[in-house]
Amino acid sequence: MKDEGLRFIEREESLISQEEKFLIKTEFHGLSHYPSKEMLSPYFQKHIENNANENSASYQEEEYKLDNIPSWKYFKQFAVFKKRAAIFAKALAEKSIPPQDIKNLNAYDLIALLKNYNQKHDIANFETAKSKFIKYFIQHHEVDYRNYMLENKAVILYALKNKGIELDLKKNHHAYEEFIEKNIILMKTKGSVPPLFNLHHKRPVKDSNSNENLSMANNYKNLCLILESPYHNMLHLFDTNILGKTIFNRKVKRIELPEDLIFFGGFSRKFQIYRQNENNYSDILTQVINKKKKQK
Amino acid sequence: MQELIQTLQNLPLMLTAKPASTEQIIRAQQDLKINNIAAIPQDFTELLHQINTIEYDGCYLFGINPRSYYLDIFAENEMIDLPNKENLLILGYDEFDYLIYNHTKECYQIIDKDSIEVIQTFSNLTKAIKYLFKIEDDEQYF
């Protein structure tokens, strides 16, 4: 495994809070649902119950200093939330939450406010980190992905069969190729994870304890498209957590994938795709510079 | 239930296996019982007769898979290390959470894979599955 770039790593890491993890999940999956009411702060629950006069808002969005909300320090680490600071302030004003009380709000309250505001004003939800990654992957590696799927037709058909799905190749000789093309179209247009694959967080979300940069958890460098069965399942079966003295000081042992690995379809390097766009970009830049030099 | 089935069938490129037979479901229930794992709830067995396992956009629902451990409700529950297995049955998962049926509380729950903390509780299967598959909910609570 060492030769193929997989490393069994032991780290000292500390857990992240549920609020931090919730924001990572929301950035990854989006705002399809409200958080559970039990997760809301007692202040906000009470405010919802009492606040029937929604239209009598007497506060301006400028009055809200979001830094006074304890969990805003987590929100502002995510570009997707940071650039919606004005919407959060508008949502607070719309719900007539006194500016001096926002210190009582938690991360779940803010997400509930954002979803409600988007729903009410017909604002499209932000694009999820999952969808962004898939679009990024297929934009840069469509040829590699198609080649992998075509070269490993037997493996993919077997995997489908193991799921109880059989493509009718006798009836339609191009059924498999059509299956690939449909996948690619959905990856490009909707950013959908293709069937049989999943996204793997190389450094697990529970250990995203870099308080200064929570958004690294869903960064494309930390994600990898991987065959769900057997590889993704297997990687997590190897997770070993050795507790330290406290839950904030523990050792974690697991297989970690290289940072530039973007697709894992097998242990051999020929079944893997590495991020090369940066290299390609610098190659292209070098080629352009050289071409200009020649022209001169 | 029919509305849920229609919604699921309309998901683009949603993969599902052949519907489970009554015999297969009975066998799975027996396997779960012998291994001291909670039983499959009634409305989930009804779903399995029409939609058996779902794989969609990185989210998964278990069913009866006689060919492999993959997405097989018995094999997956036997493999996943969850406390209180005699009362909790895992029905599916996404990258971060499990969808379970809690027999003690008679409800569906979304729980965090690592901390086992309850994230959401649902009284019916349709809402729980919509949550798992990120199917937009029109519900408002303000």
Describe this structure in words.
The complex is a heterodimer of chains A (296) and B (142). Chain A has 296 residues and is α+β, with helices and mostly antiparallel strands. Chain A is built from eleven helices and seven strands. In chain A, strands 2-3-6-7 form a four-stranded mixed β-sheet. In chain A, strands 1-5-4 form a three-stranded antiparallel β-sheet. In chain A, strand 4 (240-246) and strand 5 form a beta hairpin. Chain A is globular. The relative contact order of chain A is 0.15. Chain B is globular and about 45 Å long. Chain B has 142 residues and is of the alpha+beta class. Classes of the chains: A alpha+beta (296), B alpha+beta (142).
Please outline the helices and strands.
The complex is a heterodimer of chains A (296) and B (142).
Chain A: E1 7-13, H1 18-29, H2 42-50, H3 72-75, H4 79-82, H5 85-94, H6 107-120, H7 129-151, H8 153-162, H9 175-189, E2 197-201, E3 223-227, H10 228-237, E4 240-246, E5 249-256, E6 261-264, E7 272-274, H11 277-295
Chain B: H1 2-9, E1 15-17, H2 22-34, H3 42-48, E2 52-56, E3 59-61, H4 73-79, E4 88-93, E5 97-102, E6 107-112, E7 118-122, H5 125-132
Antiparallel strand pairs in B: 1-2, 2-3, 3-4, 4-5, 5-6, 6-7
